[in-house]
Amino acid sequence: MEEQWIVIGRLSDIPPRGARVVRRAEGNIAIFRTAGDEVFALDDRCPHRGGPLSQGIVHGTSVTCPLHDWRIDLISGRAIAPDEGCVARYPVRIRDGMVELCVTASALAPEAA
Ligand code: FES
After folding, report:
1. Which of 70, 80, 86, 87 to mutate to test the pocket of ligand 1 (most atoms within 8 A of CB)?
2. What is the pLDDT of residue 107?
3. H/E element holding 41?
4. How far apart are the CA of 77 and the centre of ligand 1, in A?
5. Do β-strands 5-10 and 62-64 pair in parallel, antiparallel, or remain unpaired?
6. Average pLDDT, consecutive stretches of 10 residues, N- to C-terminus, the chain (113 residues)
7. CB-based pocket (< 6 A), ligand 1
8. Looking at the DSSP assignment, which residues form a beta bridge with residue 98?
């Protein structure tokens, strides 16, 4: 199947070190923007108790969950030790200042630690 990318919006619409949520019937996806203007897409559900990761603060390439301060690595989707667990990742890219999410790919498994 050919890859299908949908435009989420301008990179400048996402606050640096913040996130924007893409709502889907299957569950929301959080698109994070780092201070260095990289983007990452993860399920908007903390692996601890389902907190909204999109409302957390991005530090480097991790996000801190607003509920109990677990940190999730945006690159691998894994909780940072000593916490355990992982969250699904999605392909996301920036083209001409627009953020695009691949909707044909199924969720990516967490990267090996
Ligand atoms: S729900 Fe995210 S740290 Fe508890």
Report:
1. 70
2. 62
3. strand 39-43
4. 14
5. unpaired
6. 88 96 92 97 97 97 98 97 95 96 72 56
7. 46, 48-51, 65, 67-68, 70
8. 10, 95
